[in-house]
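ok trying again, last paste got cut off:
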Amino acid sequence: MAAWRALRAWALMLIVTGIGLATDLASKAIAFQRIAGIPVTIDREAVLNASRLDMLIPTHKPVVVVPGLLEFTLVLNPGAVFGVGAGKRWFFVIFTVLALGFAAWIFGVWTRARDRLAHMAIGLIAAGGLGNLYDRLRFACVRDFIHPLPGLELPFGLAWPGGAREVWPYVSNVADLYLIVGIGILLLLNFRRSNHDEAKQQTEKSPPDQDETMPEAR
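nice, full thing came through this time. structure:
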């Protein structure tokens, strides 16, 4: 049975979406209240008129969670995931709406009622998309604070486009994490389904065993 006809499938996806959205927005609010040592309030008009968004964040030391692995620091991101496409806010607003529509289409057409893991993945994608969409509409930017692998540089003098030499130079948020995990799960499920379908087709096309087709000798 198709997922869009199953009440439990809808309930699972919407519950994951709701919990994911709530945790993303709550984590951003808490981060911008505490990480800088003073509450940081983001004003939409100030963001739109600022030449540099980092000027809207007070100078502060990152909060080290796990030395060398994870720290928290406040960043305002005008672009998409990991800061890609800065300055194209409305493009990403429209893109996010279309992506959410595509996720709904995947839920209704590609998944079946029993595909619970896929429904959870779609819920994570929806939560991540809605969390960052809220920020873009409310603040004209996305609030980021999660910085993994701080200070760990690429080997052999390598650098990312733009000159950054850290292995992971991007500051992100919980919504980005949900997007990455959700998309990763769907890709894995699609890969497994493709392999299963291919194996099934090969089984159907393979000739029957000779012993099964030869009549018994009398």
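cool. The two ends are 49 Å apart (CA to CA). The CA atoms of residues 138 and 168 lie 28 Å apart.
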